[in-house]
Write a structure and sequence with these properties.
Elements lengths: L7 E6 L7 H11 L5 E6 L5 H7 L7 E4 L13 E2 L1 H6 L4 E4 L5 E4 L2 H12 L10 E4 L3 H13 L4 E5 L2 H11 L3 E5 L3 H4 L5 E4 L23 E4 L8 H8 L3 E3 L2 H7 L1 H8 L7 H8 L1
Parallel strand pairs: 1-2, 1-3, 4-6, 7-8, 7-10, 8-9, 10-11, 11-12
Antiparallel strand pairs: 3-5, 5-6
Bound molecules: 2'-monophosphoadenosine-5'-diphosphate.
Length: about 280
């Protein structure tokens, strides 16, 4: 018999109240006229596996996973995509009809799609990329840049050991540089990406020297609150091509929505407005 239940999806984090995902998915459900609900769930780490294993029985078709669960969810997922394995984290779970939990990571897809949309002439293979930071977000970015054909990915991080780990995981296209050198690295490169939390509302400012930024470099920031960070403002003034980070958040949500609710949503100005409401 066909399952006539309304499909449920959601986002699991701890805390989760700040998440923009419910606004994005609900906007798509309404604009596409689809039956479905998307629910934020605050789940403590010790309850994560029990809650996730219960959700399919309650009509859930999948969930997004956010901080602090993106790594730990891999310890009990039944199937893990190659991308999620390489990145070491998942942001999207699909609850399959046979009861298996499939874990994927769409952050890299969101990152690249946002860049291609915001800087259509950008060619990932045209030159080196500089990645500021080496946390979970940086792992998704480096993985996506390597897949897109970046010839050299220069990673710089306050804690050097995390950058070294990225190099050992992603191979010799990754070059590690000292955090104190960050200002010198950005001159004349093809792409600069901030994956640190610096510059975010409530966090310290990204204080690296930015006078090396050159016209033609594509500059993007994963921080999207504020939308125009000091990095992006300075880059714009220097004649760089600037892409804000909100689009990554929107695009990473697309594959999950399509799998859960059966239609591929578009990312447009109305989606941006819905996320910012
Ligand atoms: P995410 O999953 O969002 O990447 P994370 O794994 O906590 O979160 O990583 C945060 C990134 O911001 C790291 O690169 C971190 O540098 P460290 O590895 O040295 O912690 C960087 N970061 C956070 N606060 C910072 C600060 N005050 N100065 C420099 N880098 C900072």
């Amino acid at each position: 018999m066909t399952d006539m239940r309304i499909p449920l999806a959601g986002v699991i984090g701890h805390p989760v109240a700040h998440s923009k995902s419910p606004r994005i998915h609900r906007h798509w459900l309404v604009t596409l006229g689809l039956n479905g609900h998307y629910i934020p769930m605050d789940v403590a780490p010790e309850d994560l596996e029990t809650v996730i294993r219960t959700l399919p029985k309650a009509g859930f078709v999948g969930v997004n996973i956010t901080v602090p669960h993106k790594e730990s969810v891999l310890t009990f997922a039944d199937q893990i995509s190659d991308r999620a394995t390489l990145i070491g984290a998942a942001n999207t779970l699909i609850f399959r009809a046979d009861g298996k939990i499939h874990a994927d990571n769409t952050d890299g897809y969101g990152f690249i799609t946002n860049l291609k949309e915001g800087a259509p002439d950008w060619d990932p293979a045209a030159g080196p990329a500089v990645v500021l930071g080496a946390g979970g977000a940086a792992r998704a970015v480096v993985s996506a840049l390597a897949e897109a054909g970046a010839p050299e990915i220069i990673v710089t991080n306050r804690t050097r050991a995390r950058a070294d780990r990225l190099q050992s995981d992603f191979g010799n296209r990754v070059v590690v540089a000292d955090w104190v050198q960050a200002g010198n690295l950005i001159e004349g490169v093809n792409l600069v990406v901030n994956t640190t939390s610096l510059g975010m509302v409530g966090k310290p400012e990204l204080r690296i020297p930015l006078d090396g930024l050159s016209p033609g470099t594509v500059v993007t920031d994963l921080v999207y609150a504020p939308l125009k960070t000091r990095l992006l403002q300075t880059a714009e003034e220097a004649g760089c091509i600037v892409v804000d980070g909100l689009g990554m958040l929107l695009h990473q949500a697309v594959p999950g929505f399509e799998r859960w609710f059966g239609e591929r949503p578009v990312v447009d100005a109305a989606t941006r407005a819905a996320a910012l409401r």
